Amino acid sequence: MSFQGKVAVITGGSSGIGKAVAIELVKQGAAVVINGRREQALIEAAKEMDPTGERVAYVAGDISDPKLAERIIAEGLSRFGRIDTLVNNAGIFVAKPFTDYTAEDFESVMSTNVAGFFHITQRALTEMTKVGSGHIVTITASGVAEQPIKAVPAMLAAISKGGLTAATKSLAIEYADKGIRVNAVAPGVIKTPMHPVETHEFLDKLHPMGRMGEVQDVVNAILYLESAPFVTGEILHVDGGQSAGQW
After folding, report:
1. Three-state SS across the chain?
2. Is 165 within the bounds of a domain?
3. Taking a C-beta distance cutoff of 8 angstroms, is the pair 57, 32 a contact?
4. Per the domain annotation, does 247 fall within a domain?
5. CA-atom Rg of the chain in angstroms
6. What's the total number of domains in the chain?
7. pLDDT at residue 85 tops 90
8. Residue 1 in this model has a pLDDT that exceeds 80
9. In Å, what is the CA distance from 134 to each residue of 9, 22, 146?
10. What is the CATH number of the domain that holds 64?
11. DSSP state of 212
């Protein structure tokens, strides 16, 4: 499938998985709108993706703000004329015993993982419905959300990312006859700068395959879903076997 001329919106696009997805899509001919909280990081990422600035736009701000969601979609339409794909990548992960979570933890995780997803997806789907085509891909979570791990208590990830898994299937059915596909990628622990090197040995052991995933593993999964027109409602696990069961 050719990505030439396609337009993708990517949240959490200044680093890690989101940045890697944006780089690959631009490399393959797409234009992207990236979002993140840190404007300077977005500027630097955009220059790395396309020094000319012709195929990359950025909008800084908190994705949980509905007004920001409107700005992001408006930027994609004004700069590139269309929205073909939305990659819901922005997310927060806080691991604690359940009774140690604070009200602030709950608000922070739910506002980004759930409210952020809701606002930008609703606005993207509004535009996609007008033209009868589009694709939503959401990054959920495998181990802590679907196959809880005793060593990593993370109920807030389960309730938020697990909810996105259910939402993916619900929206896939709702929009299947409107030319719009809705899928998700459920990764295990992916090797990004957010995981200090000293934690890698522990994190490797959280996967039956004995290692963390690489960012490119998730990028490849998204590229597959982008190029699979008969796939919708799919939760594609890229988790080194975590979702297969107890090990």
Report:
1. CCCCCCEEEEECCCCHHHHHHHHHHHHCCCEEEEEECCHHHHHHHHHHHCCCCCCEEEEECCCCCHHHHHHHHHHHHHHHCCCCEEEECCCCCCCCCHHHCCHHHHHHHHHHHHHHHHHHHHHHHHHHHHHCCEEEEEECCCHHHHCCCCCCCCHHHHHHHHHHHHHHHHHHHHHHHHCEEEEEEEECCEECCCCCHHHHHHHHCCCCCCCCEEHHHHHHHHHHHHCCCCCCCCEEEECCCHHHCCC
2. yes
3. yes
4. no
5. 17
6. 1
7. yes
8. no
9. 11, 17, 27
10. 3.40.50.720
11. P
Q: Which residues have a Cβ under 8 Å from the Cβ of 139 and sit 6 or more positions away?
A: 17, 87, 88, 89, 91, 184, 185, 187, 218
3-state secondary structure of 215: helix
The amino acid occupying position 153 is P
Q: Decide if 205 is inside a domain.
A: yes
Q: Determine contact, residues 32/11, Cβ cutoff 8 Å.
A: no
The predicted structure's pLDDT at residue 177: 98
Look at residue 45 in the predicted model and tell me its pLDDT.
96
| Residue 152 belongs to domain spanning | 7-236
Mean pLDDT for the stretch of residues 219-241 = 97
pLDDT at res. 148: 82
Mean pLDDT across 160-177 = 96
Task: Give the tens place of pLDDT for each residue, 12-59.
Answer: 999 999 999 999 999 999 999 999 999 999 999 999 999 999 999 999
CB-CB neighbours of 141 under 10 Å: 27
Residue count (the chain): 247
Q: Is 243 inside a domain boundary?
A: no
